[in-house]
Fold this sequence. Notes:
This protein is an alpha/beta fold. The chain is built from 6 helices and 9 strands, in the order H-E-E-H-H-E-H-E-E-E-E-H-E-H-E. The chain has a single domain (51-176), classed as Rossmann fold.
Amino acid sequence: xxxxxxxxxxxxxxxxxxxxxxxxxxxxxxxxxxxxxxxxxxxxxxxxxxxxxxxxxxxxxxxxxxxxxxxxxxxxxxxxxxxxxxxxxxxxxxxxxxxxxxxxxxxxxxxxxxxxxxxxxxxxxxxxxxxxxxxxxxxxxxxxxxxxxxxxxxxxxxxxxxxxxxxxxxxxxxxxxxxx
Length: 180
């Protein structure tokens, strides 16, 4: 019988040389399109916090919205989108972070999360961890607690998970693709 990791790996499409030569893009749209795999992935992301008091689930644009909405539903929590600068229509809080080629910014509505709320951060994949680290800092700067950061895929060679753990945030991933 195949393990959870093997089952999920089998429904994640790998696209070589995308978006540039030498990159192996891990595409979760095939996992999302498989009802059983999608349900199993969400159940596994939620499992450690089932029955816990979680106030909000924050999802990072864009695949984090899909997974985060499902996780929030399972935990009976509210959902908060974290988006690129300029995409939200109301008053926002924002944080800048470094990319390989410069700076970027993410933001969320100022009233989306309140001090002392318990939040789980969700995205499809953690690579270098830059965006996730910025999202954690954005949530923490308003006084909320990031209970955990959860991802379907980890690319451990790129070092993202340890960055979040250094901020005191436990990281849960379901599939690891080393060597990417």
